[in-house]
Amino acid sequence: MRIAILSSGYLPVLDGVTVSVDARVQRLAARGHDVLLLAPRPADDLRRPAGLPDGVVFVGLPGTPFGAAAGDINPGPAAHAVIEQALAAFHPDLIHVDEPERLAWGIRRLPGLGFARRHGIPAVAFFHTNFVDYWGQGSRLAPLLDPFKAVGWRLVTVLYNRFDATLVPSAQTHRRLTGFGLRNGVCGRFNGADTARFSPALRAPGYWGRNWGLPGLDDRPVMLIAGRLTPDKGWSSWDKALPKLARRLGDNLGLVIAGDGALRPRVERLAATLPQAHVLGAVPHADLGALLANSDAYATFSRCENASLAICEALAGGVPVIAPRAGGIPGQVRHGENGLLFAPGDVVDFVNQMARLVEDKALAARLRGTLAAERGMLDWEPAFEAWLDAVSRIADAAGRGRRPPA
User: Fold this and answer.
1) Are residues 151 and 278 both part of a single domain?
2) Which of 20, 146, 148, 347 is deepest in the core (most CB within 10 A)?
């Protein structure tokens, strides 16, 4: 198959979209498929990213900074002509668009869809991010936006309904989108983790002292917070939760915060008031597997996740997850089986769940046992197979002149 992938981002920018796109591109190329990858790059540097297989055709879309994450960019209107020319030269059998709403925000039109319609090529969208849920996150004005979010979700489904199919990696999100009017959804376990790089086998005695100069963490449980230090990741809740957690557990729990972003000075000030709390800054993705494996819990307050790759990687690393019962998270974290869930935004409930994990050794062992038994389900290979099967069926159905069933 000749498949053109239009993505809202690519490595070295590190997020769920870029990691998942890279996982699919690498496997498509390894299996002999012809791949065209179009992704935004800085307008003054459209060079091919490092690490792409030789056979993959890459075209950079001129972009400008976008959002709060360092290095994140989005293409502008000039990218439309670049996309049209690249697609015409490549002659794809199928066009796959990751985060079309974000790309359309910059390009001012849905990327690739006009070309697909003119040439009778199936066009598939992949729903990655609950952007509407992010509206107002971290702001005191957030409650005022709630009445407008239903309108936002309906507009999102109108956009996605223009594609031949929309792939949704979370059953919870799929039901939600369908409720707002999505008619072409195809739900499946399309996201995974590299279980070689994210493995409990990477856990090692003395890890924190040897690798990070933090020997005080080697003799106590460690809770890891990893991700962008930006308001959308729940830092208004962490500001309240971490002091309460410290009062509950004292220095019986180590806290490690891995990430960077606009809130880093604020996060560092908070960490300085807590026992055994350390801010590592940005950690390379290659080092994240060992960081997770040597932690005893991965925790998040983000209530806007769809099918979180960070959670998937934590589970693959054998680390119980403490997360809110919100978005697509309950489809990944099963309370009392592979992690613990708390009421969204409920600081007291979070502290109680984290304390349970630290104080109840039998519970911690049971969660880790479940994670060890289920690692194979989390690997990228079955996720890729499910994705490839879905897009192949969509391409076949479009070739027979009909839309695939929702």
Assistant:
1) no
2) 20
